[in-house]
Design brief:
The chain has helices spanning 2-17, 56-60, 90-100, 142-156, 217-230, 271-284; strands at residues 35-38, 64-73, 79-87, 106-108, 113-117, 120-125, 128-135, 180-184, 193-202, 205-213, 242-247, 251-258, 261-266. It has 287 residues and is an alpha+beta fold. The protein folds into two domains: 23-156, no CATH class; 164-284, Phosphorylase Kinase, domain 1 (2-Layer Sandwich), CATH 3.30.200. The strands form two sheets. A seven-stranded antiparallel β-sheet has the order 1-2-3-7-6-5-4. It has a six-stranded antiparallel β-sheet with strand order 8-9-10-13-12-11. Strand 2 (64-73) and strand 3 form a beta hairpin. The protein is elongated.
């Protein structure tokens, strides 16, 4: 506990001495008839567990940087609680956002994408994952939450965009709102990281595609070889670009590389379909 506390103090000092650090006042806009109170505590990786103990690891896995919290209250004792999670880059922000959204939520135009659910409004924009919650005497006013979200988005001054690599995943038969991103330990393998995924459905069959962008073709091949080594698959002596292997946890998996990309299909037994989607992925990849 003492070590963890020391790490928190060091991290806080670094944050305070960073000349580029954003002050809380630069993040939260003012609203007429609403009083703003900003939490003095800035949550960083070393103390995030104090706020969201069980969920902290999920946020840390997506390069969490810091969290600022503000609360808006009005004369009717309504409160809008706002949490601004900042991550290392837009890809990781998309990753944590997509890991928490559900396909049946009510999606809205806020940031790159957002949704409402039972008095909550969440959206992501650039490096920020914004979470808002209404509580108080009256029922949640979604139009007012949308107004707050718009002004917060304007205040944060981030670029709204989807990760470019998602465009390489075929659109045909893709399950809506199934896209995601795994920053580390994709499929439980330490050799896999930075994987973008999407789910697909044909009749009653559901399966997934993934794609990973690396620095160069050598790194892509090294990652593939490390995976083959882990599952004890011998690919030596073959000149194939794509391979169909039997994964001990996911069954039949097709996997291949193209220059600095590694990609694949899993949870699908139909080899004809596997080949079709692998070929489509290969054709879609542009660089």
């Amino acid at each position: 506990m003492k070590t963890r506390h020391l790490h928190f103090i060091i991290a806080s000092l670094i944050l305070l001495t960073d000349i580029n650090a954003v002050t809380p006042e630069e993040l939260f806009p003012e609203f007429n008839d609403w009083d703003l109170k900003i939490d003095e505590t800035v949550y960083v990786p070393e103390n995030l567990w104090e706020l969201i103990n069980g969920a902290a690891e999920a946020y840390l896995a997506y390069d969490f940087q810091d969290l600022h919290i503000g609360e808006y209250t009005n004369a009717k004792n309504d409160m809008i609680h706002v949490e601004l999670y900042r991550h290392g880059d837009p890809e990781n922000t998309f990753g944590i956002y997509s890991s928490e959204r559900m396909p049946d939520y009510h999606f809205i135009t806020a940031g790159t994408e957002g949704y409402t659910s039972f008095g909550a409004l969440n959206f992501f924009t650039g490096n920020y994952y914004v979470k808002m919650l209404w509580s108080g005497a009256s029922e949640a006013d979604e139009s007012l939450l949308m107004e707050f979200a718009g002004k917060i988005e304007d205040k944060l001054k981030q670029e709204n965009r989807w990760p470019d690599i998602l465009s390489y995943l075929p659109e045909l038969n893709r399950i809506p709102k199934s896209e995601g991103y795994s920053n580390e330990n994709f499929l439980g393998y330490s050799c896999f990281h930075s994987a973008f995924t999407a789910g697909y459905r044909i009749d009653n069959r559901e399966f997934k595609l993934f794609i990973i962008q690396l620095n160069d073709s050598n790194e892509a091949r090294l990652m593939l070889n490390e995976y083959f080594k882990t599952i004890h698959f011998n690919a030596s002596g073959t000149k194939d670009q794509d391979h169909i292997v039997v994964d001990p946890f996911y069954g039949k998996m097709a996997i291949g590389t193209k220059d600095h990309f590694l990609f694949g299909v899993y949870n699908l037994d139909d080899e004809q379909l596997i080949t079709q989607y692998l070929d489509q992925l290969r054709r879609n990849i542009r660089f």
